[in-house]
Amino acid sequence: MSSPPANTDPSRKLVFDGCFNFRDLGGYPTVDGHTTRWRRLFRADGLSRLTESDLAILRELGIATVIDLRTVLEADTQGRFPEGVDGVSYHHLPLTDTLPGEEESADWERSAFVAERYLGMLSEGIETVSAAVRLLADPSRQPAVFHCSVGKDRTGVLSGLVLGFLGVSDEVIVDDYALSYEAMLRVLEHLLDRYPDASEIVERYRPVILSAEPASMAGFVAGVRSAYGSFDALAETLGLSSDVEVLRTEFLE
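Below the sequence we write its predicted structure tokens.
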């Protein structure tokens, strides 16, 4: 599978001290000849450890909205986006209620299993998906960033859906998802360094952390098309057709 040229743009991956997987979703071609706008929509991992220099970058980007897809437990234990950051509206919209258990860790090496988990996230989090799309379609809430803990799975699901709604091809959606693998190596290293006494537990979750196979997202996208027919049909089912039209107006050039 060939990656679109936009994937290699140095502007796509932003470097922060407090997170590892912050990326711009701009520069992606759509099937009808448009391109997603740069510096309007971002995906990321956890934003609770941002430094002052990180927050300065967010101010430079003009971030107006943060959407947190983590569980309530994660937000309570890891912390939320810092309060009182001027101009930033924080929205906690859990996509799932639970996290992968250690007993299924090895299953994450199988792309078909991961794709099914992602489809389950869509089913379980259908209200979150709808609420997030409505937020993103509000011009007053842009630029926006959505995130989970590592920025790969729940963030990958929402990113795949939003890019699909915008008309980005399935191949490009898959390529964007696969960009997380490099960041996951850094996440794993960080966890091992930060929690040396829990290194055995971290290692047992290695398959979950490093699982970013293109086939996983390809299976998810195929599952969406199988269940709904198209991304437009999914938007109609969710009552989001008008919001998706606004998304395209706001995020495409």
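The chain has a mean pLDDT of 93.
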